[in-house]
Write a structure and sequence with these properties.
The structure holds two protein chains of two kinds.
Chain A (H helix, E strand, L loop, with lengths): L9 H4 L3 H9 L4 E7 L2 E6 L4 H10 L7 E9 L7 E9 L4 E9 L5 E3 L8 H12 L2 E3 L29
Parallel strand pairs in A: 2-5, 6-7
Antiparallel strand pairs in A: 1-2, 3-4, 4-5
Chain B lengths: L21 E5 L11 E7 L2 E8 L7 H6 L7 H5 L6 H16 L5 H30 L2 H22 L8 E2 L2 E2 L7 H23 L3 H7 L7 H6 L5 H4 L7 H4 L20 H25 L17 H6 L1 H13 L6 E9 L2 E9 L7 E5 L1 H5 L2 H6 L7 H8 L3 H5 L1
Antiparallel strand pairs in B: 1-2, 2-3, 4-5, 6-7, 7-8
Helix pairs in contact in B: 3-4, 4-5, 4-11, 4-16, 5-6, 6-11, 11-16
Classes of the chains: A alpha/beta, B mainly alpha.
Chain lengths: 165, 405
């Protein structure tokens, strides 16, 4: 099974239900897309995040009703520095999709998805705890794994692996 | 935006019930919380008004540590996340890295992985059943479960040299072939284990005390289960007919024939029935894997990724060079990212691995089932009695290493 080169051309991907759904239902939301190793990744404009997730969740052609995972990646020192990663899953169509949103490093914040999936609450708290990305509209945003008085955000790339001594 | 400082000070004891209620602290050293889970229970008399879990006591920063290790060095870290199902974690991680590499593994390795993965599920479910029953007051089951679990741990020791932190799966296969006599041992186990499941079932299923403590207790609806991102037996007890092994097969599960037990009652008893059903399915899958186990190599033919056999390393110059290179420099993985979800005994265990083209993973994220399933504790316990909290915790089957990572 040799690796196929990644497809990033939107023209080639526009037949995929998720891409088609976003292009027709929410023009301007989709920034770019990538199909690599049998997995589809879509980059969404942060201002359209909630609408886009809601559309993918409710549209009959996509039905991504389950949020499987929520995390973030730090691409320090490039800017926008963070990517928040949402893994959606469709029980009906047996398919996964990855939604990514770029978040800048100077004032990292993004809209919370707890209104769509109540279960996202601890996942967002974890990202806040370890990356320092704030989620607007989260009901109870505070540290979850680390002590409340912890300094810094360990999963950022400029945080030393051994911690500050 | 609110300032970041406002998140620092947390009012720990704050009630919603006014004068009627009080807050009771449970854990983190309570024996029935299965590790270091701390629950803040707001109670009105003996009725639960609200439950707030407080986690993080076991946080070791494994995700951060992984970023500083070579790809092959991450495997022992994955054992320590969910310490009751080490092989499932190994499985998810190596599948993710193999997907990144585009590496195919030989059939024998695939069947060995499936067989051991299902044994791991049995191992984990036996600990769950034993401790869950012990929490509710049925002590005998615990002793019986650990009798069989000991046999499985012996098998793990035979294949991996370790009882619990096995690290047996490797990128490109498994670390070494099965030892002599292993298949006879496991066949013997598979022959008598179904009777042992009947023994546990005889002790519990129709036991009036067990039914009284589990039926109608810690109820959760299908809608809530999906909304709260639950997975695995916890969700299947509420009628969510979803199992990654069947619905999105990985690592060879499409070659096995099995049913997915689903219950719709949504209470502790339903989740108990689901897991008991899974025990039977798992042992049948182990038998199928033994029957299908072909001869052949257990490692992929990829000398730059897979360590050579010891014998070759000592006799062939090229193998020695490859061995030296992999051990000192690791192997590089092409740029990209994957998410590999597997069905762990607790639910969807997902590994999100991002590579920047070097020999160390850029980011490893574990989507742990216990972390998500803990969401359910609030909904399950509300309006239940204080004594039922331990039944609810046991029925979610959390592992705190998995929650805190």
């Amino acid at each position: 099974m040799a690796l196929q080169p990644a497809v990033t051309d939107l023209e080639l991907l526009k037949d995929r239900p998720a891409v088609a759904c976003l292009l027709s239902g929410l023009p301007g939301a989709l920034q770019s897309a990538k199909f690599d190793r049998e997995e589809l990744t879509l980059w969404i404009d942060p201002f359209h995040l909630i609408d886009a997730l809601n559309l993918l969740r409710s549209s009959s052609s996509t039905q991504f009703a389950v949020l499987a995972d929520l995390t973030a990646v730090d691409w320090f020192p490039s800017e926008p520095r963070f990517e928040v990663v949402y893994s959606l899953l469709s029980h009906e169509r047996h398919e996964r999709i990855r939604i990514k949103v770029k978040v800048n490093g100077a004032d990292p914040y993004i809209e919370s998805v707890t209104a769509l999936w109540a279960g996202a609450s601890p996942f967002e708290r974890e990202v806040f705890d370890l990356f320092g990305i704030r989620f607007q509209g989260h009901p109870d945003l505070r540290r979850i794994l680390l002590p409340d008085d912890w300094e810094g955000y360990p999963l950022r790339k400029d945080y030393p692996v051994e911690g500050y001594r | 935006m609110p300032s970041i400082d406002q998140f620092r000070s947390v009012p720990v004891v704050e009630t919603i019930g006014g004068d009627r209620t009080m807050v009771l602290n449970m854990g983190p050293q309570h024996p029935s919380t299965h590790g270091v889970l701390r629950l803040l229970l707001e109670i009105d008399g003996e009725t639960i008004v609200r439950v707030r879990p407080d986690i993080g006591f076991l946080h070791t920063g494994i995700e951060k540590t992984c970023e500083a290790k070579f790809y092959q060095q991450v495997i022992p870290m994955t054992d320590r996340i969910d310490y009751l199902c080490p092989m499932t974690n190994n499985f998810a991680y190596v599948l993710a890295v193999e997907k990144l590499l585009g590496l195919e593994i030989p059939p024998r390795a695939m069947w060995i992985r499936l067989m051991l993965n299902e044994l791991t599920r049995i191992n984990s479910h036996l600990v769950w059943l034993g401790t869950h029953a012990l929490d509710i007051g049925a002590m005998t089951v615990f002793l019986y479960c650990f009798r069989e679990r000991e046999e499985i741990l012996k098998m793990f020791e035979m294949v991996a040299g370790q009882r619990m932190m096995t690290s047996y799966f490797r990128v490109g296969g498994v670390s070494m072939d099965l030892p002599l006599g292993f298949l006879d041992y496991i066949k013997n186990f598979a022959a008598y284990f179904p009777d042992r499941i009947d023994q546990y079932s005889d002790l519990l299923t129709n036991n009036p005390i067990w039914m009284g403590r589990t039926k109608g207790v810690a109820f959760i609806t299908k809608h809530d289960a999906l909304e709260l991102m639950l997975s695995g037996p916890t969700a299947r007890g509420s009628g969510v007919d979803w199992d990654l092994r069947r619905d999105m097969p990985y690592g060879g599960y499409e070659k096995l024939d099995f049913k997915v037990p689903v219950q719709t009652a949504g209470d502790v008893f339903a989740r108990y029935q689901v897991r008991m059903g899974e025990l039977r399915e798992s042992i049948s899958m182990v038998k199928q894997a033994i029957a299908n186990l072909p001869d052949g190599p257990v490692k992929a033919d990829a000398p730059k990724i897979v360590l050579p056999d010891r014998e070759k390393m000592k006799t062939q110059m090229e193998s020695l060079i490859h061995h030296f290179k992999i051990v000192t420099e690791g192997f590089t993985v092409p740029e990209g990212e994957v998410y590999q979800g597997v069905e762990s005994p607790r639910g969807e265990m997902g590994y999100y691995v991002a590579s920047d083209g070097t020999a160390k993973p850029y980011r490893v994220h574990m989507r742990s089932p216990s972390f998500a399933n803990l969401n359910a504790i609030g909904v399950m316990c509300e309006h239940n009695l204080l004594a039922d909290v331990v039944a609810a915790i046991g029925s979610i089957d959390i592992v705190l290493g998995d929650v805190d990572r």
